[in-house]
Specification:
The chain is built from 9 helices and 5 strands, in the order αααβαββαβααβαα. It has 291 residues and is α+β, with helices and mostly antiparallel strands. It has a domain of 58 residues. A 5-stranded mixed β-sheet has the order 2-3-5-1-4. The longest helix has 42 residues. The chain is flat.
């Protein structure tokens, strides 16, 4: 019997030692599966409103932003200028300016002319392709007249343009997703909320596109404010006109000054009425004081 029991005990011990690790592995796998199910269940939460149910995927949005950031956008620089030129003959200067504008593919956006007793002023707002801006400035500086003042400025708007472009692309992505969600909306409340978001995005997209068009226009075409100035008063030391003409001009200027002085006195007529009244009151008060 002892010889039989000993082999049986050895077999039982061997089976127990082999089944122990397998059971532990099975239990471990079961625990892992239960924990994973708990994590998945804990991550799921019911949406509280339509904005949560139909919210666009943030991952796709972030990917689109990174793609747009990697896109290269050319530098955007707006160039503007102001010039004031004194000329001897305004009509001749206008003809010269017309030829210069044609040679540089420029055009006049606005024109303003003022004629006074002392001078003539012609103010022009000129739009010119940015590549021809410097050539245009040099042409005006050389042959039109005497440059009294010149101011040139450059404004780099690349950062603003890039920022608007990225936000515009993201808004268009949201707009397409909201339009797709509108097709799948099941209740009237959801449809109204989605339509309201679509209207808001469309307005923001229109504003952003308008700003980009404005920047592109200012970048592609530079603006120059040109003022032509002709002085009417002739100086006796610099003018080549004879003494008689200068005498008539001086007489005319003297008469205009006298008329201006006379009209200024007339404008003070209320004070002329008050002074006699004040003198009358002062004399009356003085006479009472003596009595």
């Amino acid at each position: 019997m002892k010889n039989i029991l000993l082999p049986l005990l050895c077999l039982i011990l061997i089976n127990c030692s082999q089944s122990g690790p397998a059971q532990h592995e099975a239990k471990a796998d079961l625990v892992d599966m239960i924990s994973e199910d708990k994590v998945q269940i804990s991550n799921l939460s019911p949406p509280s409103s339509v904005s949560e149910k139909f919210l666009p995927d943030e991952k796709s949005n972030s990917n689109s932003v990174s793609q747009h950031k990697t896109d290269t956008i050319s530098r955007k620089v707006i160039k503007d200028g102001d010039m004031r030129i004194q000329v001897g003959d305004l009509k001749k200067a206008q003809n010269q300016i017309t030829d210069i504008l044609k040679n540089n593919n420029a055009y006049i956006q606005k024109e303003d002319f003022r004629n006074t007793d002392t001078d003539e002023n012609l103010n022009l707002v000129i739009r010119v392709p940015y590549k021809s801006f410097d050539t245009l400035i040099n042409s005006f500086s050389d042959g039109v007249g005497s440059v009294l003042s010149k101011n040139i400025s450059s404004n780099d708007v690349t950062e603003e343009y890039t920022d608007i472009s990225i936000k515009l692309a993201n808004k268009k992505i949201y707009l397409e997703k909201y339009r797709d969600m509108l097709k799948n909306a099941s209740t009237t409340k959801d449809m109204l909320e989605i339509q309201e978001k679509i209207r808001g995005l469309e307005d923001e997209i229109d504003v952003a596109e308008g700003r980009l068009r404005f920047i592109n226009d200012r970048v592609n075409y530079s603006t120059l404010n040109l003022s032509l100035y002709k002085e009417k008063i002739r100086s006796s030391t610099t003018s080549k006109i004879g003494f008689g003409s200068r005498f008539i001009d001086s007489f005319t200027e003297g008469w205009n000054s006298f008329v201006s002085f006379f009209l200024g006195l007339i404008s003070l007529w209320p004070f002329f009425l008050i002074f006699p009244f004040l003198i009358f009151l002062w004399r009356k008060w003085k006479s009472r004081k003596k009595k």
